[in-house]
Amino acid sequence: MNESLGCKLSKYVTASLANEFRRLLHFIIGALEIVKVHSFEKQHNIKTDGATFVEDTFSLYKDGVMYQPTPYHVLAKIIGYLKPGPEDIFVDFGSGKGRVVFFTALRELKKVIGVEMDKSLVNIANNNLANFKSGKTAIEFINEEAVNFKIKDETIFFMFNPFGSKTLEKVLGNIKRSLLDNPRQIRLAYYAPAHRYLLDNEDWLVLEKNITNLQCSVWRNKI
Predict the structure, then answer these.
(1) CB 190 within 8 A of CB 159
(2) How does pLDDT run across 132-185, given as a tens digit for each residue?
(3) Which pTM value belongs to this model?
(4) For residue 47, which of 165, 118, 163, 128 has the smallest C-alpha distance?
(5) Which of 70, 130, 53 is nearest to 104 (CA)?
(6) Which of the following CATH numbers is that of domain 56-221: 3.40.50.150, 2.40.50.100, 3.40.30.10, 3.30.470.30?
(7) Are 180 and 212 in contact (CB under 8 A)?
(8) Confidence check: pLDDT of 26 > 50
(9) Residue 219 CA to chain centroid, in angstroms?
(10) pLDDT band at 38 (very low <50, low <70, confident <90, very high)
(11) Of 72, 64, 130, which Cα lies nearest the Cα of 103?
């Protein structure tokens, strides 16, 4: 009986220590992210931190999602995997204050585009653009709903769960139609993919990579 009680007590203590360790680890990761944000943004003279609520009334399908900037440590690994180059045109849907755009533009691409339906966020992004240092690539922020963005020759699309399933379905349709007019290789990186089933069900897309520890998946088109 005592041995059983001791065993239970030992398991309880072990579980408690594990929980405390996880909390400490999350705190450390959060603290390091704050340091990275401050360091990178000070170096490049931009401010992209802070979540912002996006009014559903702005969205055609009333499925707008609160803007949250992609954590820098996550972004570094995703862009490191994608390795965009001089022939690529990169689009960030739901670009907000421009973090993904500016980070990506440190590489040499043909162009990086941020598409954002909230005018106030676009104003902040353009103010950041005026102050941005060290960019190697042309940057443009477009104040437009994703479903109305004219897709022509873009090659990489990034999303941090920026909208609901109806908007995503329409955007995927727009990308697919652009491939009929301009056949090319494209890739689509989806971070925190709340509606990934839509991409999994598209017969013109194939899953290229699950970056599971980052909760990001990358698809490419069949050619």
Answers:
(1) yes
(2) 977 789 999 999 999 999 999 999 999 999 999 999 999 999 999 999 999 999
(3) 0.81
(4) 128
(5) 70
(6) 3.40.50.150
(7) no
(8) no
(9) 14
(10) low
(11) 72
